[in-house]
């Protein structure tokens, strides 16, 4: 049975933030040197829409514990193990770059990767804002198809009280889960459900059992 997490009244839509337009004053990128064996074969291939993120996330701590530097060759992905090395190819221009996954995102439906400013420049995403890309995972510190620590993340909410209401409903439904509400640097609010043992199967059950018009639901790997 699917539970609809909604109250009465008008349905609320998640806000979508697009990258700001390029500015002439943006600092030059300082690409990070990422090396992989010349004969490295992809262990996973994915295609989809890429975007990029910079301020106000610059100099804030990312999911892997490092301080995010928008001038380094990094990216955010929702489900790849942190510190995986990925080759990103712009399907229109064939521009490529190697990036390291250091953060989680993008939390916008239909997008598969959020590039740093430096990586977006290398791949030709910076000026356009988004582009269709191919991801080739070349190295991963953990198995892709098994293990890991998982959660469900829901948002974004423009009002903190809406996130708190959803947090309360989910906490009553999932007694053994940790349900958190938190804000983002751009002023949105999110709800995260960490199931018992951060088990992927349990997280997938939460995803299947719930729908909400108040925000989009994402399966997210924590490690």
Structural features, described:
This protein is of the alpha+beta class. It has 2 domains: 44-139, RlpA-like domain (Barwin-like endoglucanases), CATH 2.40.40.10; 147-221, 2-Layer Sandwich (Alpha-Beta Plaits). 14% of the residues lie in helices and 32% in strands. It has 3 helices and 12 strands, in the order E-E-E-E-E-E-H-E-E-H-E-E-H-E-E. The protein has a 6-stranded mixed beta barrel. Strand 9 and strand 10 form a beta hairpin. The longest helix has 14 residues, at 160-173. Mean pLDDT is 86; it is low at 6-29.
CATH architecture label name of the largest domain: Beta Barrel
User: Beta-strand level of the residues, as a percent range?
Assistant: 25-35%
Oligomer: single chain
Radius of gyration, taken over Cα atoms and rounded to an integer in Å: 18 Å
Helix content: 10-25%
Largest sheet: 6 strands, mixed, barrel
Strand sequence of the main sheet, in spatial order?
Answer: 2-6-3-5-4-7
Uncertain segments of ≥5 residues (pLDDT<50)? Answer: 6-29
List how many beta strands DSSP finds.
12
First and last CA, distance: 30 Å
Helix-strand sequence: EEEEEEHEEHEEHEE
> Could you report the average pLDDT, rounded to the nearest whole number?
86
**CATH secondary-structure class of the largest domain:** Mainly Beta
Number of domains: 2
Q: How is the CATH topology of the largest domain named?
A: Barwin-like endoglucanases
Shape designation: globular
Structural class: alpha+beta
Per DSSP, the total helix count is 3
